[in-house]
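ugh ok fine here u go
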Amino acid sequence: MAYKVIIETPKGSYKKYEIKKGKLVLDQVLSPEFSFPGNYGFFPETLTGDGDALDVLVLSTKPVKKKAEIKIKVIGIMHMIDNGKQDDKIIAIRAHSRERKLKKSEKEQIRYFFKHYKQRKIKIKGFGGIEKAKKAILQAKKRYKNVL
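structure:
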């Protein structure tokens, strides 16, 4: 199943962007040793426990343009606590990519990046598979609809 997501921060960027009220805003400049391990963005019309849209990290060989809408396939989820709030990250690949599983080396790179890039206490609770990721997406979509 393919989903549409919006990319805010391209792979390799050391600047984190967010779309706020339709405008692309520079949210944070990372330390020079950090850059995003994939294209980072969100699922439109979702809401999570931290009050934001559901985050997604799209693994690919090339960066995607900021504010681009792309189709993805889910390959997993990373469970994370940020500032005391659940802040899961869906891990995905481009929809046209061949099916594959999340590699151990990718998990390690993603875990390290998200644990250290904000320079505050982050707890990584582990990774889950496709079904847990799809369940998180469905819950975030339901939460969004209930707020309307």
